[in-house]
Structure formats: structure tokens, C-alpha cells
Amino acid sequence: MKIAVISFDFDRIGGIERVALDIVHSLKRREEVETLSLKDYQKSEGWRLFRAIYNRVSAPGKVKNRLDEMKPDIVIVMHPFILKYIGEKRSYRVVCWTHGIDVFGKNGKKVEKLLKTRCDRIVAVSRFTKERIVEDLDIDASLVDVVNNCVDTTDFIYSRTDDSLPFRILTVGRLEKSESYKGHEVVMESMRILIDRGMDILYDIAGDGDGRDSLKSLSRELGIEDRVRFHGAVDSEELKRLYRKSHLFVMPSCYEIKMDGSATGEGFGIVYIEAGATGRAVIGCDTGGQTDYIKDGKNGFLCRPVPEEIAKRIETLYRDRDLLKRMGDRGREDVESGFSPEIFEKNLSRVVECAVYSE
To answer: Do residues 325 and 353 share a domain?
Structure first.
């Protein structure tokens, strides 16, 4: 069987690209796979209006022609917007991967018609994301498969937490103002509460973006600037070191529909399973795709994104190191049993089979 995988860019390091590479590596073990990067068909330089016209009119035609040349049996597209490059009349089956924010709120309405007319099956990265597709976009649930993201447990290696102080909590995520829903501010406010209670605690933040300065200002306003470490964008080795160095992973990213119809929240949240694979308990919000992994009271805590509630959960684990270690151990077990590359490959094979035999 011949399968084409289309993404925006296979070279950039991002969530969509990571999943795309996981798909390619899994499929190549049994199928003939070709990749198609949209960046090779779009213009990024030159007169702005010309670029816009070219990318909207000429690029889709070139992609369609390339697919006709490839003659695939199945085309997997890594974002609903890419469906614009797929013709309504086609000789191959189309599977569209959805990640959460691309189908939440008004973004979902923008791609609803594409999902209903340009693909044969849809993959959601979590049960929560599937619910939003089915309920908000009125798409038949039988056409939507759930395939959670995975993490390589031979790469993210388990390590035991220790009883040392300071107690280090970690958040990993972009610091873009548009992604302030990830909850860095809430964690900082909970830090102030914990420090006032006499706890020796540090907050490590991995990631960068245009919201970094405002977060630094908030740390100064709260009087905790000496307790917060901004590490900026980190490479994979430094990221794994930060996970191992931490005692607890906290990211209270919350799903919400705003007044303008835009949405916030995690479609899944791969950072939670990276932390779990390393043997770290996690704290997340009780609404969103992260609930596929986080089991409240088992491998971490789920709660509302409120400083007092976050502080309460952190304090519980600060004072009960045995519970912290048990949750970390359970997290590693849960990743191995449900979010490994082997499980991902099994679920992907099921999707491919469904696509081939769907009416």
C-alpha cells in the first residue's frame, strides 16, 4: 500500500511535525510512504500580494498534480487547513489529523466544510477533541478515530525524584501571548501562596515567546523573581534534563470558549506524557485533552485553574514525598501501557485499515 503524508513542514520542531514524523516512522515499517511538505510549494518571499495569490491559487494545483503523480492509496493530512489542497474528486482515501485548537471554537467552524467534504476519516488526538468535533461540528462519531500522541520511553528515561530542597516544579510550553491559557500566571500566583506558607520552592519555565516579558514582570510584582527560572527555548537534551531535575510538572491549561468564539486549551498535551515517562507526577486542568492521560489522584491531580486549588495540590505533594513518588511511578507505567510508540503504531494501523475499507 502506498501512503502519502502531507504536513506544513517536516524540518521544523513543533507538535504537528513531531506527530507527522511518528506517523511516517510507524508506517514505513510495513507500507510504502512518501512525504510532501507544503513549504516546498509555497512562496515565503517576494511581494506580499503576489505571495498570497500564488499560495492560494497556484500552490494547491501543484500539490494536487504531485499527488496525481504519486498515485497513493491513502493521503494523511496533518492539519484541517491542508484539506484545501485536496480535491473533492479524488482516487485516494484521505485521513485528516486534528490536534485540538484547530477544531475548537470558531476555528472548527472554519474547517467544518473541509472536514465533511474533503476527507474520509478524521483522527482526533484525544477523546475530548473527538467530542468537540462530533458535538460542535455535527460530524458522525463513527468517522472519527482517537489516536493519542506517544512518547519514546527509551528516550525519556525514568528517574526517581529525591527529597532534596528546593522543591522544583516545571512547566514546558510556548510563552506566546496568544497561548496564555497554558497557565503560567496561575502557577506563579500559587507560588506566592506556597512561599508565604514557608515552602522552599522553585519554578522552572521552559519555552519562549512574546509573553516572556509580561511573565517576568508578574514575577517581580509577586516578589518571586528569585524563585522563577526562565530557561527559554531548549533543545531536547536540555528538556529531558529539566524533567529529571524537577519534582513535579504543572501546567493548568484550560479549555474555554471566549466571547469572540475563539477557544483555548489542550487537544492532548504531549508534555504531560513526557513528564510521566520521566517518572514525574503532573497537575493539569480538569477540562481538556490532557484528561486522557491524567488520572486524578493516581498519576497526578486534575483541578480548576485557580491559584488556591493549584497551590493545595502542590502543597500536598510537597509534604507527602511518598505520594509524589507513587504518582510518578504510576505515570511511567501509564505511559508505557497506553502512550508508547508501539500503542501508537497499533492505533495508526487501525485507522489505515478503516480508511481502506470505509464506504
So the answer is: no
Position 156 in a domain: no
* Residues 229, 183 share a domain: yes
Q: Is the same domain home to 88 and 139?
A: yes
Are residues 222 and 102 part of one domain? Answer: no
Q: Which residue has the cell 526517581?
A: 160
Q: How many domains does the chain have?
A: 2
Which amino acid is it at 359? E
Q: Which of 271, 320, 277 is nearest to 299 (CA)?
A: 277
CATH of the domain at 28: 3.40.50.2000
- Residues with Cβ within 8 Å of 245's Cβ and at least 6 positions away in sequence, in order, are 168, 170, 204
Range of the domain at 186: 167-338
Torsion, CA 9, CA 10, CA 15, CA 21, rounded to 10: 150
Residuewise pLDDT in 10s, the chain (359 residues): 999 999 988 876 677 888 999 999 999 988 899 999 888 765 555 545 444 444 555 677 788 888 888 999 999 999 999 998 888 888 899 999 999 999 999 999 999 999 999 999 999 999 999 999 999 999 999 999 999 999 999 999 999 888 888 999 999 998 988 878 899 999 999 999 999 999 999 999 999 999 999 999 999 999 999 999 999 999 999 999 999 999 999 999 999 999 999 999 999 999 999 999 999 999 999 999 999 999 999 999 999 999 999 999 999 999 999 999 999 999 999 999 999 999 999 999 999 999 987 66
